[in-house]
Write a structure and sequence with these properties.
Length: 107
């Protein structure tokens, strides 16, 4: 019986370790030292960050803007001279985002 309990604990830790690993967007709106605002280029390979778009419980709420992307979560999508690049993925993201029309930032 103790083998089953030990196995259950190990599997639970493996399953929930993603939540404990940290690495999510900080309250200062930074991820790995980069501020998550400004000009963003969406790429297919070699991104700065892998991002998954969700509809609830995001790590960051993002508002797409055409100019003045000067606050946390305000992103201007560009094709050249980005502040950082992202790749949109379905699994294993660095962090998750939700597109909003107001109140961007860390929830």
């Amino acid at each position: 019986m103790s083998r089953i309990a030990t196995l259950a604990i190990i599997l639970s830790l493996a399953f929930f370790s993603h939540a404990w690993a940290g690495g999510k967007v900080g309250s200062d709106c930074k991820f790995n030292g980069k501020k998550l605002q400004g000009k963003v280029k969406i790429v297919k390979s070699f991104p700065d960050f892998k991002v998954k778009v969700v509809t609830s419980f995001p790590d960051l709420k993002v508002e797409k803007v055409s100019s003045f992307a000067d606050k946390c979560g305000k992103w201007e999508i560009v094709t050249s001279f980005p502040d950082f690049t992202i790749e949109l993925v379905d699994s294993f993201p660095d962090f998750t985002i939700e597109y909003v029309t107001s109140f961007p930032g860390v929830p």
